[in-house]
Structures are given as structure tokens and as C-alpha cells.
Specification:
The structure holds two protein chains of two kinds. By secondary structure, chain A is of the alpha/beta class. Chain A has two domains: 395 residues, TIM Barrel (Alpha-Beta Barrel), CATH 3.20.20; 178 residues, Rossmann fold (3-Layer(aba) Sandwich). In chain A, strands 14-20-16-15-17-18-19 form a seven-stranded mixed β-sheet, with helices on both faces. Chain B is mainly alpha-helical. Helices cover 55% and strands 0% of the residues of chain B. Chain B is elongated. The chains are: A alpha/beta, B mainly alpha. Chains A and B meet through helix 2, helix 5, helix 10, helix 11 and helix 12 of A and helix 1, helix 2, helix 3, helix 4 and helix 6 of B.
């Protein structure tokens, strides 16, 4: 059938508009490199050791080794155990990864004997839940962490410092910036440093630029770590990146020699993007990268496909493969920053589902850069999760009782730290002779959403200052002096302490981050000792209280704002009439009506509600008789007792929160004529119609439909209010007290 | 000879605990004092080895050696190790310089391994005269 004649479903058309259908999906094609795992071109796992020397890896003989094989044979794989480990069935090793009674250290030791193909074979036995179990056990640091991106399109240093301060306040362990204009790097690194140390000390910072420049920023003390060391899983791709395993390995040592933490960068899909995958699976090539990282002696890696995420994401099993690469890195003992930085989907649901694979088990850094500002200011092209998603993130942490590296903060605290960071920058710029920062800029940065909210700055002046800063003698010690002299002594002390930690080398060890007291939390000092329930990192005590205390949560006491002290009606007890009248409809109200409570869930005052019911009853020529129930808060019982008293046999039962029933004498309490259980949806018009319907029942005439709006979110929005209002109704109960007739006096 | 091209480049004189705002205000902290010392990295290497991280330990031992190497030489050496930047003999000479001049034998050996690998895999610079 051609498209013109093909029948089209309106529902399919609506679904086609959904965000998830804006993503791209492609079928596997191994010959084009479009395969995430288990390509037919992947080699079989294998190793041969002769005289303590590895002479074959994954089917390739030493004479044919490419430079990556050569590197990993020499520096990564342990020839003493390799043949024995490789002889073990992959399934057995896969089970050890997941098994809670096999300790992390044992698994990690075995992984040092595994070739890239073997590592792929092992993880291919695991489903995603097993991989998450394994990741929880194998991640290096016990306490999970997170990293933020801090950039802005205008390269405004005041805004950058303010955003850095906010990100630090929110609990990120590492902050990463970069530049739109490379020359700006020294100023951006400086702004990030000052901002990051403003609310408290210990946050690590980096400025991702070209390697030589990166190293120079570190040498000046303006940055404390680097993760720009990109590597690839084929020789050709490495060469395209203008590097070799040896050059990157040397760089790793060079950074360490200056006390600067580094991690490498790799990830599935990069080789395919560059056209150098030779049909091999993305995961196999990533496994080669990871063994290479291990061999270089780098303490860690950021992977999880990083900027290529949409490519594995387009393929079947792609998101699983990305989790698998995180897991292989962790299993090798590497610190791993697990991606989730670049845009992975148009669909919030799909993004969140993918995120959970790292968020729930916890990783050393859940994201390789959470966009702490709106994504239009993200100069990494990232922003998979950005400033606007922070409340979602925080609330999911609270829902799941999980620490995914972000803490709730108040708006007041955020504005205060942003302003202080701006003022500190003003002092540093003045102290170092950089272009002046105005009070207007500081105030704009304190309150800004994004860089459009900032006044124009002289970019040319800032660039010239950046050049001078890089070429001149100034270092972080001059920053300390400027801060100290201007009275920012705490920030000065934090910046100085960031210099001091370099001299100890503790934060060069695997997965190290710094506490607010500058102690290194690493694989050695904060050992991941997970071995099943009751062990490892547990979100408890003060940290759990902190994560649970989102500013949106209110105390129950302040939550029934529907009581405003003005019911709009006062009820006064009157003597019971000697005889009930046949033309009366009883309105039986709950015990808190117009006393402890004064408004229904939809916000109608009790006066308005009662008046509408009365108007409805009277519109059919009958009259109301108001009765207050004291002994029950149960709607069925209120209606049932009301109907017993009613001369017409009809009663309207009305709970104080607005839930309503029409009841006839003789029916069981839970059997009724009409029930209006969704109080939030009942307007004054609806109550009027309920009154009229009750009268119609009394007159034995057919009732009319009550206008009720359909709002599927009403329950979601008001369920806590409903509970609290019902609790108040219950509190008003006086056991055994008989119903009382009431006279209503409406306020003007 | 550049000012900083001096293997007697001062290492940190102050112990880490002495790096405080008080000593800073007394003007006792110089940039040299906030560099990591060779022996500190050697000790971190020993810790890594004991924790089952032999590759990391090797990196730290090379890093310990590189504390003796001036900043510019570090950056230049990285560049020499990139593809097609140096001939085999230039790399071998560099390896010898590291071992002899900077007391950096492990780094020297690492550079020598790079030279062998680059020769085998075609990653050397091609210069006039065919020196590979």
C-alpha cells in the first residue's frame, strides 16, 4: 500500500510527535562499525605467554601487534596470571563480578590478566541489573560523587565565579570549565578556582583546553586536575588524535610530577565516528582503551561514550553497552566518571532511564559534567542535565534514598554565595591588576539565569589580561594574597590549601576527591567495601537528612493552608424539630465543618459550599435541614446517619474537605445514590447540582449529571492535603455525641 | 640556558603542614614550596604497589623522576613523543638524557620503548637523509 492509501491512526500520529521519536535509531551494520557489542569482526579472547613475555593477544601474534597491543602487553597485562585467568570461563568471572561474597580486590586482581576481548566476553553475560550490582561493588571510592560543567557563552568571569560557587555549594566534587575562545583559558581557570573555593574548600577544578596550555594552567596552580587526555582504541584513531599510547602515558606522569590529578577520556563510538573501527564493536575498542589506560598508570578515566552517546544510543543494546564500559573501567580498578554529560535523547523519560544505570549503583562521578548552568551557556556542547533539571535530580535522590552527588540548597544561600564569589573576583582582579569588575556585574551575576543577564564586558581587555596572566609571573599564591588583603581570608585559605594538597600527592591516588577539610577520599582512604546488604556506602544519618530536606517540602503543620480562619458561615446548634418534614433534604456535615476546617480541597469556603447545596435544594422547591455529625468523620456514615434523620429520606453527606455523597434512608452506608469522591474537582456549580439532584431523588425525579472536570493530576497534587484535612476531621470527633441540628449564618 | 633549566631546581623546603595562612603572611611560601617532592611520589608509588596497583605505581615512579625536569622540558618532551615528531635516534638521545641528566632511568626506559615501538609501527619523523 502506498502512503496515500494507507490507513492512518490518529493515535499513531500523536505518538509520532513525541520527543522519543525525534531521536534517531539505526539497525546494526557491523561492516560499518554500527554495532555496540559482539561484532562478527571482534576477535576471540586469547593470550599466550612465553618466558614471562606476552606474545599473543586476542588472536594477534606479537609480530603483528599494533602499538596499542604492544603497549598493553608491556605495561598493562600481568603475564604472571594472564594464562590462568584467561583459561577461566567468562561466565565464571562474570558471576564473580556480581557475587556479593567475592570481594572487589580479588575481582580487580583477576581483571589484570584479562585481554580486551575477554573483558567484553565477561560483561556480555550480564544484564543491566547485574551490571549495576557489579558497578556498585567495583567502583573505586566508597562515597559516590559528581562533577559539574561551569561555562558561559560570554566568557564572563564574574558569572563563571558565581556559577562555580553555586555548584560547589550544591556539593559537586569537581568542576570543569572550558573556553569559547582558547586565549581566555587563564581567566576562566582563575574564575573557576575563586568561585569553587568560596562556599567551602576542597572542590577540584580543571579547564579543558589543549594539552600544553592545560599543563601550564596547572603549573600556575590555577587548576588541580585534568581529564583532557583522550585516547582511542585503534592506532589510526590515536594517530588522528595526534597522540600515541606513549605520549599520553608520558603526559600522565608529567601531570603527576606536579601534583596534578588526571584521568583519561575514552568511550564507545569515538573510533566509529572517526571511521577507524574496522567493523569491530564499540565495546571491544573501548575495552582496548581501558586496558591501555590501566597500562599507562592513569588512576582513572571518564567514559560512558561521552560526546558520542547518541551513536550507541541509536543502536540496539547501546545504553547497556555504555554501562558495560563503565563497569569494565571500574573492574580494572580505575576511577570512572560515567558520562551522562552530552545530550543523549530528546525524551526526558529516555534520558532519565539511562541515567538510572549510573545514578542507582553510584559511581565515582555520576556525570562527567552536570551542566550547572542552563544548557545554552554550556560550551562543551553538553547539558544532558542542566540547571533546570536540578530539582528533578534532587527529588529522585530523595525518592530512592540515593546520594547521586548533589545536595539541596536554598535560594537565599545560593544568592549569597554567588554574590560573595563575585566580590572575591572583584578583589582578585583589582589585586592582580586585571580589568575592573563593577558592583553592577556582581549583582547581575548573583541573580542571573544565564549570560544574557550579564552587562557587557570588554572582552578584548579580558583577553589581553588573560595573555598577560599566562605569560607573566603570577600564580595562585598571588591570588591568595589578593584575597587575603581584601579580607576574603577564608577563600584565601581555601585557595592556599588547594596548593598545599598538591605537595602530599594523596589526591593522585585512585578516585580521590577532597573533603571540605582537604582530606583525600580515595580508593585507599575511602575504600569501597561493598559486599552485600548492610555494607558499603549507605545513605544514612546527617547526609540522608540533608538529601531528604528539599526546600519544597513543608511541615504538615503549615500544609493545610486551606484553613484561613474564615469559613464564610457560622453554624449554631438549634433544638431538634419535633417532627421531620417530608419536603426536607438533610445536609449532614462532618465534625470539623466550619470549625477546625473552613475550606474544601478545591478551595471553596464552607460557606460557599453550603450555600451552593442549599440553592440547589431550593431550586427544586424543597428545603434544607442542616445537621452536624459529631461522632464520625466517615463519609458513608455521615450520609447514612443524615438519611436516617431526613423527613424525605434523602441526605447529602458532606465531609469538611468537600467529599460528598447523596444517600437514601434504608441503603447501607457504603451503598448510595451518588458519590462525589474527588473533592478537588467540585466547584460551586457542582455543589449546586448535587443539591438539586438530592432534591430530585426526594421528589423521585431523575437527577441530572453533575458537572465534574476531569483532572487526573488532582489527586497527585492534593493527596497530602486530603490526608491532613481528614486527620483534622477525625480530631474533631466526639465519640457518642448525637447529631445536632444547626442554623447557618452566612457572612456577608 | 634558561633560568629554570637547572636540575638543582629548588624542591619544596616547607613541610606540607607548614603551608598555612600564617606562614604565607610571613612571606615564607614560595612557588617552590608548593611543588610535590620526589620522595613523596616514591612513597605514593609504594602505597599504590601495596594496594595492588602496579601500573599506577610505575606512573608515580616516573612522575617522581620528572620532578627534576623543568616545566618547558616536560612540555617539549610530550611533544617529541607525539606521532612523527622525532626520529629514532632523537628519541634514543632523549631517553639517555633523561636517564643521565635528570636521574630518570624509568622514564628513560619508557622513552626507549617508545622509540622501538615507533620504529616498528611507522610513528617516527621522516627527515631528509632518511634518518629513522
Amino acid at each position: 500500500m502506498d502512503n496515500a492509501t494507507r490507513p492512518q491512526s490518529k493515535r499513531w500520529a500523536r505518538r509520532a510527535e513525541r520527543a522519543v521519536n525525534r531521536d534517531t535509531y539505526v539497525n546494526e551494520a557491523a561492516d560499518l562499525g554500527l554495532v555496540v557489542m559482539d561484532s562478527p569482526f571482534d576477535p576471540e579472547p586469547g593470550i599466550r605467554v612465553e618466558n614471562g613475555r606476552i606474545v599473543m593477544i586476542d588472536g594477534r601474534e606479537e609480530a603483528d601487534f599494533d602499538s596499542i597491543d604492544r603497549y598493553i602487553a608491556r605495561y598493562a597485562l600481568d603475564p604472571a596470571i594472564a594464562e590462568e585467568v584467561m583459561a577461566r570461563p567468562s561466565l565464571d568471572l562474570a558471576r564473580m563480578l556480581v557475587d556479593i561474597s567475592t570481594p572487589r580486590a580479588l575481582v580487580m586482581a583477576l581483571m589484570q590478566g584479562c585481554t580486551p576481548a575477554k573483558l567484553c566476553s565477561i560483561v556480555s553475560h550480564l544484564n543491566v541489573v547485574e551490571m549495576m550490582m557489579a558497578l556498585q561493588k567495583m567502583r573505586a571510592r566508597r562515597t559516590p560523587g559528581n562533577q559539574a560543567h561551569v561555562t558561559n557563552w560570554r566568557e564572563n568571569p564574574v558569572l563563571m565565579a558565581a556559577d562555580a560557587a553555586e555548584a560547589a555549594l550544591r556539593g559537586f566534587d569537581e568542576l570543569e570549565t572550558t573556553c569559547r575562545i582558547a586565549r581566555m583559558a587563564p581567566i576562566n581557570a582563575l574564575a573557576l578556582l575563586v568561585g569553587s573555593q568560596t562556599p567551602h574548600g576542597g572542590v577540584l577544578t580543571q579547564c579543558a583546553v589543549e594539552e600544553a596550555l592545560n599543563l601550564r594552567l596547572g603549573l600556575k596552580g590555577l587548576t588541580s586536575y585534568a581529564e583532557t587526555l583522550s585516547i582511542y582504541g585503534t592506532d589510526e584513531a590515536m594517530r588522528d588524535g595526534d597522540d600515541t599510547p606513549w605520549s599520553k602515558g608520558f603526559l600522565a606522569s608529567a601531570y603527576a610530577s606536579r601534583g596534578i590529578k588526571i584521568r583519561f577520556t575514552s568511550g564507545t563510538g569515538a573510533e566509529t565516528m572517526m571511521g577507524y573501527e574496522s567493523g569491530q564493536s564499540m565495546l571491544y575498542l573501548e575495552a582496548r582503551c581501558l586496558v591501555l589506560v590501566k597500562g599507562s598508570g592513569a588512576q582513572g578515566v571518564q567514559n560512558g561514550s561521552i560526546s558520542c552517546i547518541a551513536l550507541p544510543g541509536a543502536l540496539p543494546g547501546g545504553v547497556r553497552a555504555v554501562l558495560a564500559e563503565n563497569l569494565i573501567a571500574a573492574a580494572l580498578g580505575l576511577e570512572v566518571a560515567t558520562g551522562n554529560d552530552a545530550m543523549s535523547s530528546h525524551s526526558d523519560m529516555r534520558k532519565a532511564a539511562k541515567l538510572m544505570l549510573q545514578f542507582l549503583p553510584g559511581t565515582d562521578f555520576i556525570t562527567s559534567g552536570y551542566s550547572s548552568m542552563p544548557r545554552r551557556d554550556n560550551m562543551f556542547g553538553g547539558g544532558n542535565f542542566d540547571a533546570y533539571d536540578m530539582d528533578d535530580w534532587l527529588i529522585i535522590q530523595r525518592d530512592m534514598k540515593v546520594d547521586a552527588g548533589m545536595e539541596p540548597v536554598t535560594e537565599d544561600a545560593v544568592i549569597a554565595t554567588r554574590r560573595r564569589a563575585g566580590k572575591a573576583m572583584q578583589a582578585v582582579f583589582a589585586g592582580l591588576g586585571l580589568p575592573p569588575i563593577s558592583d553592577e556585574e556582581i549583582e547581575a551575576a548573583a541573580l542571573a539565569d544565564d549570560s544574557d543577564d550579564m552587562p557587557e564586558r570588554d572582552l578584548v581587555g579580558d583577553l589581553a589580561a588573560a595573555d598577560a596572566l599566562l605569560e607573566g609571573p603570577l600564580t595562585a599564591l598571588d591570588v591568595v594574597r589578593a584575597l587575603d588583603e581584601a579580607g576574603f581570608c577564608d577563600i584565601a585559605a581555601n585557595v592556599l590549601a588547594m596548593q598545599r594538597v598538591r605537595t602530599s600527592g594523596d589526591y593522585l591516588q585512585p578516585a580521590a576527591v577532597l573533603t571540605r577539610d582537604f582530606a583525600a577520599l580515595s580508593a585507599f582512604t575511602d575504600r569501597n567495601d561493598y559486599c552485600g546488604p548492610g555494607t558499603g556506602f549507605r545513605l544514612e544519618g546527617a547526609q540522608w537528612e540533608k538529601i531528604a530536606a528539599i526546600p519544597q517540602a513543608r511541615s504538615a503543620a503549615e500544609m493545610v493552608p486551606l484553613s484561613r480562619g474564615r469559613a464564610g458561615v457560622a453554624l449554631k446548634a438549634v433544638p431538634r424539630p419535633a417532627r421531620s418534614a417530608p419536603d426536607e433534604v438533610v445536609i449532614a456535615v462532618g465534625p470539623a465543618f466550619a470549625t477546625l476546617l473552613d475550606r474544601t480541597l478545591c478551595g471553596l469556603s464552607h460557606g460557599e459550599t453550603l450555600a451552593a447545596l442549599i440553592a440547589g435544594i431550593r431550586s427544586r422547591g424543597l428545603r434544607e435541614r442542616i445537621v452536624k455529625m459529631h461522632a464520625t468523620a466517615d463519609l458513608g456514615q455521615i450520609g447514612f446517619e443524615g438519611a436516617k434523620l431526613s423527613g424525605s429520606g434523602i441526605a447529602i453527606g458532606l465531609q469538611s474537605k468537600g467529599t460528598t455523597v447523596i444517600q437514601r434512608q434504608g441503603l447501607a452506608p457504603l451503598n448510595n445514590l451518588e458519590l462525589f469522591s474527588q473533592a478537588p474537582l467540585l466547584s460551586a456549580q457542582a455543589y449546586r447540582q448535587i443539591g438539586a439532584n438530592a432534591a430530585s431523588h426526594a421528589l423521585r425525579q431523575p437527577p441530572s449529571p453533575v458537572p465534574v472536570t476531569v483532572d487526573n493530576m488532582a489527586r497527585l497534587r492534593l493527596i497530602v492535603h486530603a490526608v491532613l484535612m481528614h486527620k483534622r476531621e477525625i480530631a474533631a470527633i466526639t465519640a457518642g455525641r448525637a447529631p445536632e441540628d444547626m442554623e447557618a449564618r452566612f457572612d456577608a | 640556558m634558561r633560568d629554570d633549566d637547572d636540575i638543582r631546581r629548588p624542591q619544596a623546603r616547607l613541610a606540607p603542614e607548614a603551608i598555612t595562612m600564617e606562614t604565607f603572611r610571613q612571606g615564607r611560601i614560595t612557588p617552590g614550596d608548593i611543588t610535590i617532592r620526589r620522595e613523596t611520589l616514591v612513597a605514593q608509588a609504594a602505597l599504590a604497589e601495596a594496594e595492588g596497583y602496579p601500573q599506577l605505581a610505575r606512573n608515580f615512579r616516573r612522575a617522581a623522576e620528572l620532578t627534576q625536569v623543568p616545566n618547558d622540558v616536560l612540555i617539549e618532551t610530550y611533544d617529541r613523543l607525539r606521532p612523527h615528531r622525532a626520529t629514532y635516534y632523537e628519541l634514543i638521545a632523549l631517553a639517555q638524557e633523561f636517564a643521565a641528566r635528570y636521574d630518570a632511568p624509568e622514564t628513560g626506559e619508557y622513552i626507549r620503548q617508545a622509540a622501538e615501538a615507533y620504529r616498528a609501527k611507522g610513528l617516527l619523523a621522516v627527515r631528509d637523509g632518511g634518518d629513522d
